[in-house]
Amino acid sequence: MSVFTIEAFLAILGLVLLMIEAFAPDISRRTLAALSIGGTALALVLFFTVASHETSSLPAFVQPWMKLDSLAIFYKGLSLVITLLVLWLMHECAPYLSKYTVDGRLSELFSLPLIVCAGMMWMAAATDLVTVFVALELVTVSFYVLVAFARKSNLALEAGVKYLILGALSTGILVFGIAWIYGATGSLSFEGISAALAKPETSKVPALLGAAFLLAGLGFKVAAAPFQSWVPDVYQGAPIPVTTFLSVGSKAAGFVVLTRTVEALIGEHSIIGPEVKALLLVLGALTVLLGSLPAIFQQSVKRLLGYSSISHAGYLILALACGDSIRTGMTSGGIVAFYLATYLPMTVLAFLVLAVLRVNGQGEDIRDFRGLGKRSPLLALALTLALASLAGLPLTAGFMGKLFVFFSLVDHAYWGALVCATIGAAAGFYYYFRAIVAIYSTEGSSNEPLKLNIASKVGATVLAVVIVVLGVYPKPLQHTLTKPVEVAAKASAH
Amino acid sequence: MPPLLFYLFVLITLGFGLNVVIARNPVTSALSLAVSFVGLASLFLSLDAYFIGVLQVLVYAGAVMVLFLFIIMLMDIKSEEAGGRANMAAIIAGVVVAGILSVQVATISGKLPFSDKSTETAALKLAEAGAQWEAKGKENLPTISRDLKAGELPDAKLMGETLFSKYAFHLQVVGLLLLVSTVGVVALSKRDNKEASSQS
Q1: Do A149 and B187 touch (CB under 8 A)?
Q2: What is the pLDDT of residues B78-103, one digit of tens each?
Q3: Is this prediction's pTM over 0.90?
Q4: What is the three-class DSSP state of A453?
Q5: Does the CB of B194 have a partner CB in chain A at under 8 Å?
Q6: TM spans, by residue (chain B) (predicted)?
Q7: How many CB atoms lie within 10 A of CB B25?
Q8: Does residue B177 sit at the A interface (CB-CB below 8 Å)?
Q9: Going from the N-terminus, what domains does chain B have, and what CATH number goes with each?
Q10: Which of A342, B66, B108, B179 has the most crowded Cβ, counting Cβ within 10 A?
Q11: B173/A138 Cβ within 8 A
C-alpha cells in the first residue's frame, strides 16, 4: 500500500459521507462524526505504518508530480493529525454550532475536512506548480464553504464573503505569477525552475515579476503582510473548529508550498536570489510587526489569536528568507516544519478552551476568561501553558521554534529583521500575559465549575503535555527534521 | 491577418471593455463585456489559437455572461443614478495599478527575444513535429500526426491528449473541487425548512 492510497481513501470517505447524508437524511450526527473521526484515525495509523518503511512508492500516474521526501512525509502526518483534532473539535462544538446552521444540520462539516486533508497531503508532496495549484484550490474552495457554514450568524457570513473575495483575488494573482515564471524559465516543476534560474542567460525581469506575484499569491494564503487584513475578521467569524483548521492546517499547507517555492527561487547561483531574499526579509519583518502591534488592543480572543497567527507567519517567513542555518544544523524548511509542529498543540489547545467556554454559553472575549482559574483549574493551567508557549516562554514548545528563527537571523546577520522580530516577541509577551492575568483574576462573571467531558479533559492534558515535552526535550523532533540537511550535504559532496 | 483587422478587433475589445466600467446601466455593462470577449476571441483566432478562441466565446461570452445577466435580472439591480459622485480615490488607485502593470508588461515584453515566425516555415516545423509524434509509438492518437503532417495545428486534440493523459490526476482533483463547490453552494443556499413552513 502506498501513501497515495491513504490520501485517495480519505477523499473517497469524504464523498461517501456526503452520499450517506444525501440518501439517508435520518442518520444521526453522532454516527457521521464517528465514521469521519474513525476513518481519519485509521488513515493516521496506516500512514505511520506505511511511512515508517520508506520504500512505499507512488502509483505511476502521480509519479511525475509528487515526491515523497522527509518534508512531504512530515507535512502529510501533520495534516492528518490536525484533521483528526479538528473533527474531534467539531464533534465537541456540535451542540452550539447546530444553532447557527440551516436545519441544524452539520453533515458537510464532517465530510469536507476529509477532502481538505487529502488536498493538503497532495500539496505537501507536490513537485510542480500545476499540482500545487490544483491541490491548493481544492483546499481553499473547501475552506470557503467551511468558513461560511454557520450562516445564521452574521459574523460568519461576513467572514465567508471576505474570505471568498480575497481568496479568489489571491488565486488570480497566484496564477498570474505562475504564468510569468513559466514564461521566464520554461518550466513548471520546482527543479526545472531552480535549474533555469541558475543559468545566467535567463532574463531576470520577467522572473522577478513572476516571483513577486507568486509570493504575493502564496502570502495571501499564509496570512503574510501586506495581505493579512482578512485574517482577524475571518478568524472571528468562522466556527471555532474551522478557525483552528485555518490557522494550523491551511497555514502548514501554505508553508510547505512556500518552502519549496522559495527553495527553487533562491537556490544556488539563482539570478534573482538576493532580490527574493530581501523581499522575504522585508515581508517577514513587516508581518511580525503588523501581527503583534495591533494585537495589543484586541478584546476578542479569536481576533487576538488571528493577529497572533499573522505574527507567527512572519517568523516563519523570516526563517525561510535566511536559508540554511549553521548554528542549529537545520535547513530553513526544517526550521519552518519544526515551528509548525510546535504551533499545532498550542493553537489547538487555545481553541479547545475557547470551544469549551462557548459550549458552556460563554463568549469569546478576554473578559470571559475571568475566574477560569477557579471554575476549572485544569483548563486554566492548560490555557496558561498554551498562551505562554504562543508567547515563546522558555521550557515551552513555542520557545524552541522562536529560538531557531532568531539563531538563523543571527547566523546571517540580518540585524534589522532581528530587531523587528524582537519587538514582535516583546509585544507578544504583553498581550498573551494580559489574557493569562485574566484567567487568574478572582472576579469572574460566574463561579460555577465548568462541565467538562472526559474527551476534553484527556485532550487538554495530552496537548499540554506535548507542549511541555517539546519545550524541554525537542531533540527527537529536531532530529527527524535535520535528516534532509544530511541528505543534501551528501548529494552536494558527490 | 491584415493589420487593419487586428486594430479593428483591438478597438472592439478595449472600447467595449472601457464601456463595462463607464456604463451606468448594469445590463449595458454586462453586454459590453460580452462584446469585448468576442473581440478578444477574434484576436485569438487571428493568432491561429482556434481552440482558445472558441472556448472564449463558448465559456465566457456564452456561459459566464448568461450567468451575469441572470443575476442582474434576479436581483433586479437598478441602474446607478446619473451624476452620482465618482469615488476619486478608487479611480486614482485603479489608474495607478493599471499604469504600473502596463509599464511592467511593456518593459518585459520589450526585452523578450522576438523570433521571425513566418507561416511557411511554421508549416514545415509542423510536418517535422508530425513525424516525431508518429515515431513516439502507436498508443498516440494517429489523427494528431495526420493533422500535423497536413500543416495544420490540431490544438483541440493536443490539448485533450495532454489533459487526459499527462494531467489525468489533476483533472480528477479538479473534478473533486467542482463537486465540493457544488456541495458548498447547495449547503449555503438551501432554505430553512422550519422558517419556510412558518412563512407559508
Answers
A1: yes
A2: 766 555 566 788 889 888 988 888 88
A3: no
A4: coil
A5: yes
A6: 6-23, 30-52, 58-77, 89-108, 167-188
A7: 14
A8: yes
A9: 1-77 (1.20.120.1200), 125-188 (no CATH)
A10: A342
A11: yes
